[in-house]
Predict the structure.
Amino acid sequence: MTESNTSPQPSPPGAHPGRRRAMVPAVIVGLVAFVMAAGSLLVVRANGKTNKIALGSTPKPVTVVKAEASSYRPEAHYVGTIAPWLEARIGPQFVSAYVDTVLVRPGDSVTRGQVVATLDCRNVSAESSAVSMHARALETRHEALAHEAARVGDLLQGGFVSPNEAEQKTAESASKDAELQGARARLARSNLEVSDCILRAPFDGEVAQRMMDPGAFARPGTPVLTLVDRSRVRVTANAPERDFAAVARGALVHVRVFSSNELIDGRITRRSPAADPGTRTIHFEVDLPNPERRLPVNSTADLSIEVGEPTQATRIPLSAALVRGQKASVFTVDGKAVRRLTLDVKGEGQGSLFVDPALKPGTEVVTEGRAQLKDGDPVSATLQVPDASPRRD
């Protein structure tokens, strides 16, 4: 056996293993000390930003308004339609023909008798001329037969003709007269058809719709134009049969026009004496003057009629209460804290809520910020300036 001689490898210059091992604990201690110091600084910084005051004791910012003394009277509301005083769908009644001209457009004002459209009725005019000529021929023939019958009558008195011959001439003359009357009737009908080719305005008004243009084919009953007179309008609505007494003639009605958000007061002009068999509703109408034609017709309106007797109530904004059925929950400001009250609801309208007078007028009620409140919370209240625009109770 041969023995291998292993000699220790020489250490690289400058390397001292014992010294490196001695430095490891020092490095670890330094790192631990650095981490602990950094953690201590973070803890001190976090504690410095911690709020030591309870959130529940901090006043919450809210907006309040003062309750107002008022009275409430129940109202019945109906959806109505603003209808024109007069409305006509202008079109042919007797003839079928192509539209030749349409002389007006929507928004144009017309006067009674003004030509608004014409139809191409050359065929009808030719037939009318033929009937007229035929009637003229019959009239000439009838005059000749009438004169001949008169002469035969004179000859009958002298005994120159027989009674039978005289009667034949008289009958022939009467037959031609009847035929002439029939021709005149056909001529009158033909003249109506010719007149039907010229469409005229039946009253002073405005063009609301134009359904046809030149070249379209119009048949009897087909409208070419729609004409309305809105110098006065009719607001029509239907009420349930139980409100028959409430919609009596002369009852005051508050009409809110949706198109202009205008509030107009009027009185019921007419009421149907019977309910509709299908819907069991009562039809009523309110006439409103519209000389400036500011109200558009066939638009929507809200009608409200006061019913019952007025009662004392306190008015608050609708946003200041949580309404559940006939109860309303409100927050009132008592000093620097809020109190929660539950009140009876009288009614609502025009963005206001009418509650029991147990809520005294002048009491500050919370409108904004109430969702984060509970009974007894401290608050910092800002009084809201009331709307200066007039409101109807």
In short: The longest helix spans residues 122-158. The helical segments are 17-49, 122-158, 163-195.
